């Protein structure tokens, strides 16, 4: 890991969490930034970075050359490696097309949330009707409006997800315009 830190010091530009994860092995192990950001107290931040780099250098100095080379070799050998999660029939793998995959599973999964959404819509309609009758006596209920907005967003999200899964995202965006 130490050779990896020294190797990356001058080669990458990363966001703060990634940089902290490299220097301190996890982003949580990194020292807290001073109030207002690192630019408020650059001396303290540079001191903390110096301590981390010197610690990594000390770990490297403890390693002999063959061990260091072995670490570096293992790092490069792991690049591009992956683990397959499930075996696929070779004939299906070669001749796979989108239409070959069953869509019934997706429809079954989608039917349960759709029923829930329909029930919620019906409940909201009933609440709206009752609130219209009582509107002359009471101000409109803000939580009801929030529920309606939340439901609209959820329905829009479900439509977008369904369109994306069926490959109709571009047509849906064209219709929205």
From TrEMBL:
Signal sequence, renumbered to the chain: 1-20
User: Which SUPFAM superfamilies is this protein grouped with?
Assistant: ClpP/crotonase
Q: Name one GO biological process term.
A: fatty acid biosynthetic process
- In which pathway does this enzyme or protein participate? Lipid metabolism; malonyl-CoA biosynthesis; malonyl-CoA from acetyl-CoA: step 1/1
In terms of domain of life, where is this protein from?
Answer: Eukaryota
Pfam families xref list: ACCA (PF03255)
Q: Which Gene3D superfamilies match?
A: 2-enoyl-CoA Hydratase, Chain A, domain 1
Q: What cellular component GO annotations does this protein have?
A: acetyl-CoA carboxylase complex
Q: Which UniProt keywords apply?
A: Signal
Cite the GO molecular-function annotations of the record.
Answer: acetyl-CoA carboxylase activity; carboxyl- or carbamoyltransferase activity
Name of the featured protein: Uncharacterized protein
Q: Which organism is it from?
A: Dioscorea zingiberensis
Q: What lineage, starting at the top, does this entry show?
A: Eukaryota, Viridiplantae, Streptophyta, Embryophyta, Tracheophyta
């Amino acid at each position: 890991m130490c050779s990896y830190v020294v190797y990356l010091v001058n080669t990458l530009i990363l966001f703060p969490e990634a940089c902290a994860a490299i220097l301190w092995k996890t982003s949580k192990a990194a020292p807290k930034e001073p109030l207002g950001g690192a630019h408020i107290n650059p001396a303290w931040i540079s001191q903390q970075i110096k301590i981390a780099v010197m610690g990594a250098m000390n770990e490297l100095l403890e390693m002999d050359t063959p061990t260091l080379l072995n670490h570096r070799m293992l790092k490069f050998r792991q690049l591009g490696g992956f683990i397959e999660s499930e075996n696929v029939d070779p004939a299906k793998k070669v001749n796979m097309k989108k239409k070959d995959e069953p869509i019934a599973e997706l429809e079954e999964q989608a039917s349960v949330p759709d029923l829930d959404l329909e029930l919620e819509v019906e409940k909201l309609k009933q609440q709206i009707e009752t609130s219209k009758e009582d509107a002359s006596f009471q101000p409109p209920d803000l939580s009801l409006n929030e529920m309606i907005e939340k439901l609209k967003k959820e329905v829009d999200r479900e439509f977008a997800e369904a369109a994306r899964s069926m490959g109709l995202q571009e047509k849906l965006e064209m219709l929205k315009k």
